[in-house]
Amino acid sequence: MRSTRKSGGRHRRGGRAATVVALVGLLALWVNPAASADDVTGFSLPFSGAPGYEHLAPTQVTDPSRLHAPLGQEWAEDIARQIGLSPSDALSEQQARDFTTGGGVGGSKEAAEIIQASIDILVNTTGHPLYSDVNGVSTPSVLGSYGLYVTPDGMLQSPANESAPTRQVNTLIAPGGYVDTWLRNNDATDTLVALYRSAYPIEAAFGFAAQQMSGTAQLVTNTKGDVVSTVGMSMAPPLWIVNFALIYAVSPSLAAAMPAHWAPIPPEVAEAIEASPTGQVPYADYASYLE
User: Fold this and answer.
1) Please, which residues have CB within 8 angstroms of residue 74's CB and are 6 or more apart in sequence?
2) CA distances in angstroms from 105 to 52, 60, 108, 177, 179, listed in the order given
């Protein structure tokens, strides 16, 4: 359990300063928003994120048994340390419970539902299935490594699709928004400061730029030599690291359930999502490609 946190003007100024740094980084991105693919990872700017942190993001899966496998706690703690977070920066169990249920001072059940749904989507790994209505049948799905998920009503899409809770949560995590305010109001200013001192702000800037460039489908191209692959936006390094930081701040054990590796979306599925005017396709029509 964490010791009691105290809010203070110094902490608030630190958070604002980090936000300014992130915005400066974002402006720099738009001066030159694209570059050749990284020789090692295959992602190009801005999808590769800050060079100093790119190596911490999931690598392409090489062992089929590791498809949709979670990080595990040891790996998660190593990543957290390298992006500037530690277990003491996370919310207490009671704070995390309040935060994800709409409790606490100024809590909103509507906002909490979006936050919890986002976490569920981003930890959709082995042992953490999502359940959806697929042709009238409650159907589990695990698609985390593809950077895809199935909506409650059975549609397959990227977590960055504009209809997804994981995209809608952007308004809640914006500087000065609901999450910032809730943390300050609920004796968790230390968690907020830790986030803004970590890799989170600069990676958020890269992630924002990447989302703005990716159209309706919100898929990412990866190029290694002559091999071109496609994966969902949530598995691009800056988005993955941003989501990891935010989930770790809520619960390190939840962050440990995020995907350890990314996997190319089968071409038939990627092409269908790209061709869809909504970036969605019926999961029932493409489940066989993903199993």
Assistant:
1) none
2) 37, 42, 9, 15, 12
- Residue range 105-132, pLDDT digits in tens: 999 999 999 999 999 999 999 999 999 9
Under DSSP, the state recorded for 222 is E
Which residue in the block uniquely carries the two structure tokens 């992630």?
A: 207
- Is residue 120 within 8 Å of residue 237, measured between CB atoms? no
pTM, 2 dp: 0.88
3-class state of residue 74 by DSSP: helix
Q: What is the largest CA-CA distance in the chain?
A: 55
Burial call 15-41: b when 16+ CB within 10 Å, e when fewer: beebbeebeebbeebeeeeeeebbeeb
How many helices (DSSP H) and strands (DSSP E) are in the chain?
Answer: 13, 9
Taking alpha carbons only, the member of 190, 240, 171 closest to residue 85 is 190
Half-sphere exposure (CA, 13 Å, Cβ side) for 277?
A: 0
Q: Give the type of residue at 146.
A: Y
Query: Which range is least confidently modeled, 19-28, 116-125, 179-188, 280-289?
Result: 19-28
Q: Is 99 helix (H, G, I), strand (E, B) or coil?
A: helix
